[in-house]
Amino acid sequence: METIGQDLRISLLPLFIIALPLLEIAGFVIVGRQVGALATVGLVLASSIAGALLLRHQGFGVMIRVRAEMDAGHDPSRQLAHGAMIVLAAILLIIPGFISDIFGILLFLPPVRDLAWRLLKGRIVLATDFSTGGFRARPRDKIIDLDDDDYSRDDDYRRGPDHNSPWRRLKDE
């Protein structure tokens, strides 16, 4: 039953992508009828400028919070998700249209972002382990230390592989 729901969601995405511009045009007509054409264009320009300014202001704040979480050795995934949602919100505000502006403004609100994070965090896989109290360097199994006579930029590669090369020994081990 769950796969039917997933297939339905996937098949509705193209319909939504086609319907959104039509809904935005309808929004322009409705708003233009209420406030006039010039005011409608002014609102669209104002929302684009507001999106760019909010992205700059809130984006830097999220970057600072992500850095603070990482410096403290905590999982920054929530703050990174908030940053991604702020970028999406700014893009929605910059795109001309009132429906996209409504969703963009909603995503700029921290409680809405927290709700979205609670709904999405189960679907996101964290690739880094922060449980050790910070970042860990990946352990290196084998280190190759070359001396000056082990490497040269001559045309020696034309003679074939050097069987005494440390690179060859590493591969054979």
TrEMBL record:
It comes from the Bacteria. Residues 147-173 are annotated as: Disordered. Keywords: Membrane, Transmembrane, Transmembrane helix. GO terms for cellular component: membrane. The keyword Ligase does not apply. The keyword Nucleotide-binding does not apply. The chain crosses the membrane at residues 12-31, 37-55, 86-109. This is UPF0716 protein FxsA. It comes from Mesorhizobium tianshanense. The lineage of its organism: Bacteria, Pseudomonadati, Pseudomonadota, Alphaproteobacteria, Hyphomicrobiales.
